[in-house]
């Protein structure tokens, strides 16, 4: 058995494992760059903004994993429709997170801008990764 092999070798488990690996690498890389920029260039970046953004990115990755497992486990070919719905729900969740953070921390305007920028960077990069992954998965499913 090769190193890192899954116990359950179903196609959906392999897809989920591959997506989770890509997602973790993306979140770790962006976090490393954000903290490096914070320490080297001394941006006015609050570490709490990075923590909340990482938590949001990881939770949305887990949610997409559950959607992928559900769609790949069923016989209906609704991968793109499910991903479209998921993307819209994640966008609404990000908007609610920004509004909730502004309400809880009593920030507005320029004070809230660094958090919105950090969350937007995580959101956009993760959305690009998710879109590329799902489109590639959809193409490979059509070829079979």
Descriptive overview:
By secondary structure, the protein is mainly alpha-helical. Helices cover 80% and strands 0% of the residues. It contains four helices and no strands. It has helices spanning 11-40, 47-73, 79-105, 113-143. α1 (11-40) runs antiparallel to α2, α2 runs antiparallel to α3 and α3 runs antiparallel to α4 (113-143). The chain is elongated. The mean pLDDT is 85.
Short description:
It contains four helices and no strands.
Blueprint of the fold:
Elements: H1 11-40, H2 47-73, H3 79-105, H4 113-143
Radius of gyration: 17 Å
Please provide the count of β strands: 0
Query: Whole-number average pLDDT?
Result: 85
Q: How far from one another are the termini?
A: 26 Å
Work out the strand percent: under 5%
How helical, in percent, are the residues?
over 70%
Q: Any idea what the shape is?
A: elongated
**Which consecutive residue ranges, at least 5 long each, have pLDDT under 50?**
none
Which structural class is indicated by helix and strand composition? Answer: mainly alpha
The number of distinct helices, counting runs of at least 4 residues, comes to 4
Give the SSE string. Answer: HHHH
Sheet with the most strands? none
């Amino acid at each position: 058995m090769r190193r890192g092999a899954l116990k359950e070798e179903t196609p959906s488990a392999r897809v989920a494992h591959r997506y989770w690996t890509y997602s973790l690498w993306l979140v770790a890389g962006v976090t490393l760059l954000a903290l490096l920029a914070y320490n080297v260039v001394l941006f006015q970046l609050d570490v709490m903004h990075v923590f909340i953004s990482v938590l949001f990115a990881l939770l949305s990755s887990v949610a997409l994993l559950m959607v992928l497992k559900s769609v790949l486990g069923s016989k209906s070919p609704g991968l793109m429709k499910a991903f479209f719905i998921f993307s819209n729900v994640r966008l609404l969740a990000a908007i609610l997170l920004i509004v909730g953070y502004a309400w809880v921390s009593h920030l507005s305007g320029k004070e809230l801008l660094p958090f919105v920028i950090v969350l937007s960077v995580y959101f956009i990069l993760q959305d690009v990764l998710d879109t590329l992954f799902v489109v590639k998965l959809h193409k490979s499913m059509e070829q079979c």
